[in-house]
Amino acid sequence: MKEIVRSVAEERIAELLRMAEERTKERGSSSLLAKRYVQIARQIGKHYKIPMPAESKGRICKKCNSFLVPGINCTVRISGKSAIYACNCGNGVTPAVHSRKPTSLRSS
Ligand SMILES: [Zn+2]
User: Fold this and answer.
1) Distance from residue 63's CA to the centre of ligand 1 (Å)
2) Ligand 1 (ion): which residues have CB within 5 A?
3) Which of 27, 38, 47, 94 could cross-link 65 (Cys pair, CB 3.0–4.6 Å)?
4) Quick one: pLDDT at residue 108?
5) Is the residue at 56 inside a domain?
């Protein structure tokens, strides 16, 4: 029974984060809705003790609950083998370390 509840919660989190990314990418739409989706996803994860998906973990601002999309609401800095997503919110920079996939060798 617990596995079913857990899998449903994981599905909800993934769906909410996908919707938050879509709302953030839609220029002109309210970012408050995207922030609310992220807030609900974080609450579900906290309640059922489910970690955020690995691909989304470094792309959520912990201060303002924004889903970070490069070029829209965050800046990306490359530091060594990792990319740092820094939110543009007024509450200061919240860097989130997001490891990059290993790049393929160049054929030259
Ligand atoms: Zn922020």
Assistant:
1) 5
2) 61, 63-64, 66, 87, 89
3) 38
4) 47
5) yes
Condensed to tens digits (0 to 9), the pLDDT of residues 17-70 reads 999 999 999 876 668 899 999 999 999 999 999 998 888 888 888 888 889 888
The answer as to whether 108 is a domain residue is no
pTM higher than the cut 0.70 = yes
Q: Which of 59, 37, 51 is nearest to 9 (CA)?
A: 51
Q: Is beta strand 96-99 parallel, antiparallel or unpaired with respect to 82-87?
A: antiparallel
CA atoms of 51 and 39, how far apart (whole Å): 14
Residue 104 lies in a domain: no
Q: Over the stretch 55-80, which tens digit does the pLDDT of each residue have?
A: 888 888 888 888 988 888 888 888 88
